[in-house]
Amino acid sequence: MAKLLQGATGDWEVVIGMEVHAQVVSKAKLFSGASTEFGAEPNAQVSLVDAAMPGMLPVINEECVRQAVRTGLAIGAAINLTSVFDRKNYFYADLPQGYQISQFKYPIVGEGEIVIDVDGENKTIGIERIHLEQDAGKSLHDQNPTLTYVDLNRSGVALMEIVSKPDLRSSEEAGAYLKKLRTILRYIGTCDGNMEEGSMRADVNVSVRRPGDPLGTRCEIKNVNSVRFVQQAVEVEARRQIDIIEDGGTIKQETRLFDPGRGETRSMRSKEEAHDYRYFPDPDLLPLTLTQAWVDDLNAHLPELPDAKRNRLIEDLGLPAYNAAVLTAEKESADYYETLLAAVAKATGKPVKDFATATSNWVMSDYFGALNKAGKDVTNSPVTIDNAAKLQKLLIDGVISGRIAKDVFEIMFETGGDPELIVEEKGLKQVSDTGAIEAAIDAIMAANADKVAEYRSGKDKLFGFFVGQVMKQTQGKANPGVVNDLLKAKLAG
Amino acid sequence: MTALTDLTIVEARAGLTAGEFSARELTQAYIDAMTAARGLNAYIAETPDHALAQADAADQAIRAGTAGPLAGIPLGIKDLFCTEGVHSQASSKMLDGFKPAYESTVTSNLWRDGAVMLGKLSMDEFAMGSSNETSYAGAVINPWRAQGSDQNLVPGGSSGGSSAAVAAHIAAGATGTDTGGSIRQPAAFTGTVGIKPTYGRCSRWGIISYASSLDQAGPIARTVRDAALMLGSMAGYDPKDSTSINRPVPNYRAALTGDIRGLKVGIPKEYRPDTLPPEIQKLWDQGVAWLKDGGAEIREVSLPHTQYALATYYIVAPAEASSNLARYDGVRYGLRVNGSNLNDMYAKSRGAGFGGEVKRRILIGTYVLSAGYYDAYYLKAQKVRSLIARDFATAFQDVDVLLTPTAPSAAFAVGETTDPISMYLNDVFTVPASLAGLPAMSVPTGLSSTGLPLGLQLIGRVFDEETVLNVGSVIERAAKFTARPTSWWRA
Amino acid sequence: MSIDLSTVRRIANLARIEVAEEELPPLATELNKILAFVEQLEAVNTDDVQPLTSVVDAQLPQRVDEVTDGGYPDRVLANAPHAEHGFFTVPKVIE
Lengths: 493, 491, 95
Ligand SMILES: [Mg+2]
Ligand SMILES: [Zn+2]
Known about the structure:
Distance between the termini of chain B: 22 Å
Shape of chain C: flat
Order of helices and strands of chain B: HHEHEHEHEHEEHEHEHHHHEHHEEH
Strand order of the largest sheet of chain C: 2-3
Number of helices of chain B: 15
Helix content of chain B: 25-40%
Oligomer: heterotrimer
Distance between the termini of chain C: 37 Å
Radius of gyration of chain B: 21 Å
Structural class of chain C: alpha+beta
Low-confidence stretches of chain B: none
Mean pLDDT of chain B: 97
Bound molecules: magnesium ion, zinc ion
Shape of chain B: globular
Number of strands of chain B: 11
Number of helices of chain C: 3
Radius of gyration of chain C: 22 Å
């Protein structure tokens, strides 16, 4: 169901399409052998090809082709066995060739789709195409009062431009789409999804219309580099357009920039001039041809995708849908959870299904909670998989109670210690010895004869009081199941 | 005794191997000749020190028995080739001061085989022209003059510095590049041999691009045998050029058997316009007779789309050029004229850096690619280009090689042709093979009524340079073209 | 088709070539001559003809993903008309 925006004159529907530029994971650039690594000295990762020296020629990197095809396969898209590189001609400071090598008429990947989840509802977003192209260099406008500095390190790095259909209808959907796309790319390892470093940038096309009307005039908001900013940009841009139309104005199709500081979009001066890119096939390159057998092989070796993994966790392991969704939203979380499950299975010799849900709860609340609080993530967690598995084993085997487990984990998180040793050293083992527990119960019943009488006369609620007293007396180490059973029997008289 | 500079490459190699003279002596002789011929304006940059150092290295290699096939041979290099640390400006002010930090693959191959670089040869700016009048350094003068005339003639273009230098014996051979005839037409205008190999045979890496889908490097030399020798060094697969073809380079000299018995030679009837000067027609007929005498079978063939080749070329080449030349923006190299903002700096730099013909072609190319015109011009031209290529493929089902005139006239006077279209018509016979990517060669075959050289063109199948060269050698031997310009330019 | 002065101005701007106002009319004349010449292609029937993509019958070669180039900012900047702190420079751009 589309979420409508309210204007002064009625409801408006916002229509959003996105062009996401995702940097391909590769060692070298799309058409040159220079490194793609982030953060080098200016112009240190520039080949003569990237600097567009006279007579330099492009040669394509096979890994970039492979990654684009894998991405296409991951979104169920048609792979075009013949695609063509075109030149997009325009002049700009960070575009040394005076053209960008891109794919215009015949992209490498055709139509596909991505399923997003907004408020528990699934929605399928169409993908129009994915094409390969060169990134531009970087202009630095604030280093000198009269000059713009140009660093070509990024020039020629491979990008996938992933173009959605105008299927998104709210800022939430736009955010969910970008998140989901990022998740898929990270699952298959074709883009690191690092938005702060610019590995993913979104051009967001926004228009508004009355529900049921044809599409309105759109504005393109360039280079938005976080999910939050995409959502904010959509909201302020939709509102801006609604205000203009309701004031009797018309929307001018243009390129705009989102200013997160001011929370507004503004027209881009450098893009004011109407462009005429004069696309034509790059005569330095031949058409790119692939074989179906090669594509099929890549498809066969694609790792499990987030939706498939989530469904498997629900169907095969019996996880609650919520847990499965949370754990598969980030590849690292899913990887961590699954590695832990395997380690616990190995340690306990029990089938995964027996403890999958309990472990998922522990991962989501205790573990991620602690990581969050400490500002860490699974990659720099102080708790190793082995130790986490040992902790789960202690729980599953009934050596410690859930309450003690929380204390042990706290120590593990601080010290990186082995839970078995911690339990041993601190004497935290659960007491299941009925003799010791019986003695404690007897003592408590003797000291609280009045309460025993009340209980016996029907005040069932006092049962909790007795449990609490026993646990207190045993410093929480008594096995709660044993305590329950014994208490029930003894109180019954 | 013959002057060292009068030896062909093959003869000079023999003399060097026999120890009759050293590479240093040979190189010095060429440096002296080059210096004395500055009036021709063939060289845009002389590199005598570089040449002598390479000559010394060649002498050592010859003594050590490790000499390559071109060891000690002094060559001129067209300014379109990037040569490390040496003037490489495509004869354009736009590339003012540019000295590349790299060496083109073709010239690297020549140095690998021991050749010596005398200097960089002038050319039409960015290889755009047919008369070598558009270089920022001024027109190159053809060593040939009409009988009884002291009027300066053009050496053809765009490899006009190359053809003039070889004809004046101020280089033993020279590199050229050919996009629509820029090796063959200047060879014809100067009584030299010039071959454009199959597209993809020579690497384009490090050659300043004009029109990527057409540009090919090739040699200009005094004899077919010299051209074969040079081409053997220049050619070869280069993984740095995606359009370079990975197939072995044959021994081109071994192909020069002189035996053409049973070979089928096609005469395209469309290369016979009404305006063809009778003396060129006569020469062509003569060429047919020579090949018949050699045992070849002559057949008329039809290339029906030939008449559209020039128009096709003048869409495709400018379109590619408009994009290839966008990198000259005053930021990373070359001329920069300051402006009030980025676009102003671009426009001023490019306005000042490019000459008239280059600007015209960039503007035409920009126009034919622009929104609304792409289909009518560029796409249409690429379709006609398919038809032109198909014509050749059909003809080559019946014949092994084609014989045509190289150019519709002999060399004309400097400053005589000012209208762009008239200038373009010089390439009417050379452009079709370029559009189809075929190997083609011009061989000098005789003199015009005014004593100026004329050439015939041979066009071969894709990668069949061997037949082109072999048939060329037969014509060369029959024509006995030994005429030389008088050395009027010697100071 | 014939192009007028404003078209020449527009193309020159697209191509980033400064053309003085008084040079526009002769330039337009020249360009129109060339366009008139190339327009003879209209006479060719190209129905069902595919545009030529490459004169050579070959596959696009692909290289292995290895870092084999770069690491020489000095060579990259060697010919720059103006460079500062390892950067190329252009007149200040306002985005
Ligand atoms: Mg885009
Ligand atoms: Zn893009």
